[in-house]
Design a protein that fits this description.
Length: 257
């Protein structure tokens, strides 16, 4: 199966930039969309006739939100991680196919203020508990989305200058170190160890054309699920938002039977 993850920076803006024909042109089975910023999921469903769709919208209008679009309906869909403190911002949902769980996550950014960075670090604690709980009942777990943080020096354009910046703090990097130590794998890094492979570029200063970016969008796979990873790449065209889509090829025989 193929799964695509994309922070589209608003579903309506992304549609205007060609999301629908681009999605139809792919061979992907599932599209995971972050930062929907729209709560009319009937209207979204109408944009994708013939596909199964489900979305989770924030209490605050025009903010955050996650969406899943699939060729084959999952067995189950769940919204949130179980606490309104986090779920009011609609940042996490997961769908279940047979023995596979796919989590769609849009982690907070702490760039706007110290208070938001504190919120983000507290969210990470709660999100890890959520992951651990899922792992107790499922062995094949794929977490996709906008993590809003870089793990290694090669994931950011200027690691020395940006060290300690929200999204590249020691606390965030150590949180990802824990996942790695537990056997989780960064899908892209299974296949590609080169630098200057980014997924987000600021709209300022021609950052994208100069490739001054951050790799903050990724798939992380549980120890068992990582064995099914066949390919993970960045899709640089078309330019649907300030992020690029990330595609994972994953193989598990008879997953949809």
């Amino acid at each position: 199966m193929q799964i695509i993850s994309l922070n589209g920076n608003g579903i309506r803006a992304c549609v205007r930039k060609g999301l629908i024909p681009w999605w139809r042109s792919t061979k992907a089975d599932v599209l995971l969309f972050q930062e929907v910023r729209f709560d009319d999921f009937n209207a979204i469903n109408d944009l994708f006739p013939g596909y199964w769709t489900a979305g989770f919208s924030a209490i605050k209008k025009g903010y955050s939100g996650v969406l899943a679009i699939a060729k084959t309906p999952p067995k189950k869909v769940n919204f949130g991680i179980g606490d309104p403190l986090w779920d009011d911002e609609a940042r996490v949902m997961h769908i279940v196919y047979s023995d596979l769980v796919i989590v769609n996550a849009y982690l907070p950014s702490g760039a706007s203020s110290l208070a938001r960075q504190k919120y983000k670090l507290e969210f990470l604690i709660a999100f890890k508990q959520y992951i651990d709980e899922l792992s107790q009942s499922h062995s094949n777990i794929i977490i996709a989305g906008d993590w809003n943080m870089c793990h290694k020096d090669i994931d950011i354009h200027n690691p020395i200058r940006l060290s300690g910046t929200p999204g590249f703090t020691e606390e965030e990097r150590q949180w990802l170190d824990v996942l790695d130590a537990e056997g989780w794998r960064d899908g892209f890094r299974i296949f590609n160890s080169e630098s200057e492979n980014y997924t987000w570029w600021s709209y300022q200063s021609n950052s994208r054309s100069r490739n001054v970016g951050w790799r903050i969008d990724a798939f992380w796979l549980s120890p068992k699920a990582s064995q099914g990873a066949k390919r993970c790449i960045h899709l640089y065209k078309p330019e649907l938002s300030d992020h690029c889509p990330v595609l994972l090829d994953w193989e598990m025989p008879s997953i949809f039977t």
